[in-house]
Write a structure and sequence with these properties.
39% of the residues lie in helices and 13% in strands. With 277 residues, the chain is an alpha/beta fold. It has one domain: Divalent-metal-dependent TIM barrel enzymes (TIM Barrel, Alpha-Beta Barrel). The chain has an eight-stranded parallel β-barrel, surrounded by six helices. Helix 2 links the parallel strand 2 and strand 3. The chain starts with 11 loop residues before the first strand and ends with a helix.
């Protein structure tokens, strides 16, 4: 079997597959019932102070989530906390670290929407140190609609912060829309890579859409679009964790479990076609 082949039981369910704001408790249950190995959770709003379901107001929420994941046999792969924005402070980022520590997740997926990258580098320096001290890694997710638009910009930010242990999260849609490709991935040090989030999409952004809208509502199941997903995955380390991030709008009205099951089945079928040998 090809080393890059994955069965659904080897994949991670990304929270976004279940919609823009699913309860992390529901994500864990859906991952378990759909046969995923792991789940990636969002545990706060995208901006400091934004609410998040099933977490706000319960001081033991993270411990309850950790216990539920253990009970259901789901590994907690990553957490996504608040973005780095002009309003984000060191205290907000410390809260991301504290949440990941309490959940027992080894990775924080971090987006950045602050164009003052010198300020971001200063924040990242201390943020990275706090995460490392807690046994947690930060993975910068570059997004073309964010302040860190490309893999090269993410690499430069990490270098400026002086935190070489900080890594990168690769989202196949963001990679394609940032004009990146398989060569971009091959140029990255394998140890820099934390996680790849997979989905498909049309070859080009639809007229009248925005990059953010597409990221939330324009993703397709692997194999249903025109992104060179097999080429992307072949350029990555064979053992890199693969997360399904497929909030397919045509299935948005389905129950959460059915959405998770479809994500698992369609990803499994893609891997069977692309990496069967």
């Amino acid at each position: 079997m090809n080393a890059r082949h994955r069965q659904p039981s080897q994949l991670t369910l990304g929270f976004l597959t279940l919609g823009a704001a699913p309860s992390p408790f529901d994500v864990i249950d859906a991952a378990a019932d759909a046969g995923f190995a792991a789940a990636g959770l969002r545990i706060s709003g995208r901006h400091p102070g934004d609410p998040w379901p099933s977490v706000d107001g319960d001081p033991q929420a993270f411990e309850k989530l950790r216990a539920q994941a253990q009970r259901r046999g789901v590994r907690l792969s990553s957490t996504s906390g608040c973005y780095i924005t002009p309003k984000t402070t060191a205290a907000h980022l410390q809260a991301n670290v504290d949440a990941a520590r309490r959940l027992g997740t080894p990775l924080i997926v971090q987006g950045c929407f602050d164009d003052d990258l010198a300020r971001v580098a200063v924040l990242l320096r201390d943020y990275g140190a706090a995460a490392t001290a807690a046994g947690i890694r930060i993975g910068i997710e570059f997004m073309p609609m964010s302040a860190v638009k490309t893999a090269a910009m993410a690499e430069a930010l990490i270098a400026e912060a002086g935190r070489p242990e900080v890594g990168l999260v690769i989202d196949t849609l963001h990679l394609a829309r940032s004009q990146g490709g398989a060569d971009t991935l091959r140029a990255l040090a394998p140890e820099r890579l934390c996680l790849v989030q997979i989905c498909d999409a049309p070859a080009q952004l639809a007229p009248g859409s925005t990059l953010f809208d597409e990221a939330m509502t324009g993703r397709l199941y692997p194999g249903d679009g025109q992104l060179p997903l097999a080429d992307f995955l072949a350029a990555l380390p064979a053992g890199l964790e693969v997360e399904c991030e497929t909030p397919v709008v045509a299935d948005a009205s389905l129950p959460l479990l059915e959405r998770a099951r479809r994500s698992a089945a369609r990803a499994g079928a893609f891997f069977d076609r692309a990496f069967a040998g």
